[in-house]
Every structure is written in C-alpha cells, then in structure tokens.
Design a protein that fits this description.
2 domains, alpha+beta, D-Maltodextrin-Binding Protein, domain 2, binds 6-O-phosphono-alpha-D-fructofuranose, Fructose-1,6-Bisphosphatase, Chain A, domain 1, about 30% helix, about 325 residues, five-stranded mixed sheet
C-alpha cells in the first residue's frame, strides 16, 4: 500500500522544481479534498443541499456545496503557505494571498471547486478539478504573467471525483496515477498506477439535446459514431452524465471521447479553459490521449481572461482525431483564435 503523501515525496526527486514546497501544496489539495468529500457524502443530512442564494461570475446560481467546497480549498491552500494566488470558478477575481508568508509562495492554483454541482441533489458523482502553475515573478505582487499562463506551463493537473468511491487522479508530467480514498484510515491510497487511455474507445459523451446548434463537423461525427461497423467497434455506446469529471474519468479508464463543442448560440462552448479544459487535457495527453478545441491543442491556447471558455474534444487519440478531421472538413469556419 502506497499513500498519496509517500507517492508525492517519492516522485519529487524527479521534479527539478520540487523542493518539498510542491509536495506540500499537493498534499494541501488532498486535505481539502477529504473535507469536501465528507461534506458531499453527508450533504442531505447536514442541510447543505440546495442554493446558496448567490450567483457566481458565470451567472450560475451557486449551490451551498459550491461555496463550501470553494472555501475549503481556499482555506487549505492559504494555510499551506505554498500557494500565492487562486483562480476559482466561484470567484470573479483572482484570490491573492498577500500576507508576509505567502507573498513569496511559488505556485498558483486554478480551481473548479465542485464541477457538476447541478447533480448534487440526485446523488450523481461530482468533482473538483485543479491546475497548478509555477509563478513567473518572485518576491513581488502577483503579475498578469503569473496568472494568464498557457497550458504547456502547467506543472500539475488533476481532479477529485466524489463518486461510489472518492478518488484523486493527477499528473506532474510523469504519467497519470489514481488514489482511492480509504475512509477507515483517512488516507488516499495508490489504486490506479500509470493510467493509459485506450487508443480507440467505444463510448462517446455529448449532450445531443443541443444537436441542432452543433457545427456540421460535430453532427457528422455523431452520425459516424452511430454507423454499423463492428470492425471499428461502431456503433459506439453513448454515455453522458452531465459531470465532466465523471464522464472524463470513465473515458480515461475505459477509452472514449467527451465533446462539449462550440455551438451557433455559444461559439466558445460552456467549459472554462483554465480550470476545466487545461487540467483534464494535461491528464489526457499524459495518459496517451488527446485534447483540442476541435482544431487547436488545448494546452497551446493562451488565455486572455481567467474565466474564458473553450470547446473541448478530449479522450482516446484516434477518436479525437476523427472528430478533428470532420471539423476541418465541415466546420473550418468555427476556428477560434
Ligand atoms: P450541459 C457541469 O456544469 C459542466 O460544467 C460539466 O461538468 C458537464 O459536463 C457540463 O457542464 C454539462 O453541461 O450543458 O450538458 O448540462
């Protein structure tokens, strides 16, 4: 049995930037995840279901658990003193820890504290998605260059899935590893070592209710998935949970593709680049898969705004490439620069 903390410290020798601070930061995320897991698991009992009565920067009604999860991660990262600032889906502006100890902290965390929270009341798995960047500046106040970093600068991408079991899955660029939470001892234990996503899966995940608004290339890809061709395992099975972490986690373990495309109504789609698309894109690539906006590699997209959105095509490499081929052939006008 190898715990998350043991694994992090074992790996840190291979990380040329980790002098224990990164390991401490990752452990702080693990601590917050345990607390959120406790709250998610007893939400119905502790009267923390339902709406907070506030609206976040996305214009979405905040659930009580959204706010609670956000506060727990901010508290754990502030107390850990390795994080200088947080970009969160639940905060319009960057949360800067500007006290003496954290002013020189080396890392920035981008966070979706509780993704898929619309599923909370119906007991469908939800998750936390996180991305860790190294600061460009040191010893000064936080700069724009510290915050708006391109995905290739990511030092860590990961998620926590609060499901039938709770798992923390992350990568630092040395492969993808999954840790299952053992509530009997309060530890995350290595359970899925060196996860690899199959080159070709048999599952496609997309909200087909938006079909009439999809780009032609996406419509063509959906029809491709439904064709009868046993050699290529088609027709694929469709699975759509409405929780990115859950759909991505299943596709990561079993192979498959998840698509949240731009539409005629929302050309940039719904998902946020910095704290949803980029971390899962890093994981997908490290597991041998692929992630793009239908045209460009997600990790190559330079953010202009911390809450900007991006279409997302992610999962098994051959499946993403087929979707990209159809996007290029039928929807090249959808390219977003
Ligand atoms: P729709 C949850 O709100 C989320 O950001 C992802 O977790 C999920 O995959 C997607 O939105 C669901 O969106 O429009 O299909 O309900």
């Amino acid at each position: 049995m190898k715990t998350l903390v043991e694994f992090i410290y074992d790996q840190q020798e291979n990380l040329n930037y980790a002098t224990g601070e990164f390991s401490r930061l990752l452990n702080d995320i693990g601590i917050a995840a345990k607390i959120v897991n406790r709250d998610v698991n007893r939400a119905g009992l502790a009267g923390i279901l339902g709406f907070e009565g506030s609206v976040n920067v996305q214009g979405e009604n905040q659930k009580k658990l959204d706010v609670l999860a956000n506060n727990e991660f901010i508290k754990a990262l502030r107390n850990g003193k390795q994080c200088a600032a947080i970009i969160s889906e639940e905060n319009e502006d960057v949360v800067v820890f500007d006290d003496e100890t954290t002013r020189n902290a080396k890392y920035i965390v981008a966070l979706d504290p509780l993704d898929g929270s619309s599923n909370i009341e119906v007991n469908v798995p939800i998750g936390t998605i996180f991305a860790i960047y190294k600061r460009k500046s040191i010893g000064t106040t936080i700069t724009k260059e510290d915050i708006l970093q391109v995905g290739t600068e990511l030092v860590c991408g990961g998620y926590v899935i609060y499901g039938s079991s709770t798992m923390l899955v992350y990568t630092t660029g040395q492969g993808v590893n999954g840790f299952t939470y053992d509530p009997t001892c309060g530890l995350f234990v290595l359970s899925h070592e060196n996860i690899k996503i199959g080159e070709l899966g048999g599952i496609y995940s997309i909200n087909e209710a938006n079909y009439i608004y999809f780009p032609e290339g996406v419509k063509k890809y959906i029809k491709y998935c439904q064709e009868d061709d046993p050699e290529s395992r088609r027709p694929y099975t469709t699975r759509y949970i409405g929780s990115l972490v859950s759909d991505f986690h299943r596709n990561l373990l079993r192979g498959g593709i998840y698509i949240y495309p731009g539409t005629l109504k929302n050309p940039y789609g719904k998902l946020r680049l910095m704290y949803e698309c980029v971390p899962v894109a890093f994981l997908a690539e490290q597991a041998g898969g692929k992630a793009s906006d239908g045209f460009r590699r997600i990790l190559d997209i330079h953010p202009d705004d911390i809450h900007q959105r991006s279409p997302l095509f992610i999962g098994s490499k051959a499946m993403v490439e087929k979707a990209e081929e159809l996007m290029a052939a039928f929807s090249s006008d959808f390219v977003k620069e």
